[in-house]
Amino acid sequence: MAGSDGALDREKAALRRAFRGQKVPPEVAADLSRRIVAHLLAHPAYRAAAVVAAYAPLPGEVDVRPLWTAVWEAGKTLALPRVEGRGRPLRFYRVEPTAVLSPGAFGILEPPPEEAVDGAAIDLVLVPGLAFDRRGVRLGYGGGFYDRTLPGLRRALRVAPAFPWQIVDRLPAVAHDVRVDVLFLPDGPVPIAGSEGAEKPARQEELAQNGGKAVAEEKAEVPAEVPADGFKKSSGEANGA
Known about the structure:
Blueprint: H1 2-20, H2 26-42, H3 44-48, E1 51-53, H4 65-73, E2 77-82, E3 91-94, E4 102-103, E5 109-110, E6 124-126, E7 131-133, E8 138-139, H5 145-149, E9 157-161, E10 167-168, E11 182-185, E12 188-191, H6 196-199, H7 201-208
Parallel strand pairs: 1-2, 1-6, 6-9, 7-10, 9-11
Antiparallel strand pairs: 2-3, 4-5, 7-8, 11-12
Catalytic activity: (6S)-5-formyl-5,6,7,8-tetrahydrofolate + ATP = (6R)-5,10-methenyltetrahydrofolate + ADP + phosphate
Family: Belongs to the 5-formyltetrahydrofolate cyclo-ligase family.
Organism: Hydrogenibacillus schlegelii
């Protein structure tokens, strides 16, 4: 078992290096981020949510900061995470438009630890990552923070904003890896069949209103450089680089 775990860790590490090596034209990432955020704002789960947990984007992640503004303008509660120690789950804090964010662990902007938000009160959580697969498996950065955090957000629908090149057929996973419920791509939301969120009665109608689309059939390889239109022209495996 130890040898198997070691091989899995090495495979994940290689994938992380490959995805971190992507070079995306800023104008492409900005345009696709706007489209993804527009789909998020139109989704029934967002419209019904009172408390939305988002993230401060790192380079290479979908820029969801315009969604922050929409949350504030709609009178909803915006929560952002803080790292409060290795091996511990993230803690979410309410963020107002006047809040000053500061670089925290790993250089990620974090909110001041002033008004904690109960994880059980979060209705919608945006989950960042390096890559996702068609089963909702997420490739994170190796710290395990979201795997420890998401099980505690009991009512939250887990949604992953992602660029097309971040989607692959299959990622390595173990039993404790927490999966997302819906992928949000530039062309719209993609519910994950059989996900925990999809099976919750309160979420079924929300997901059904998106047409019940299956995950897109096109493979997305890890690019050394993304072409100007943001989409790959050929297919390949995630660890082919």
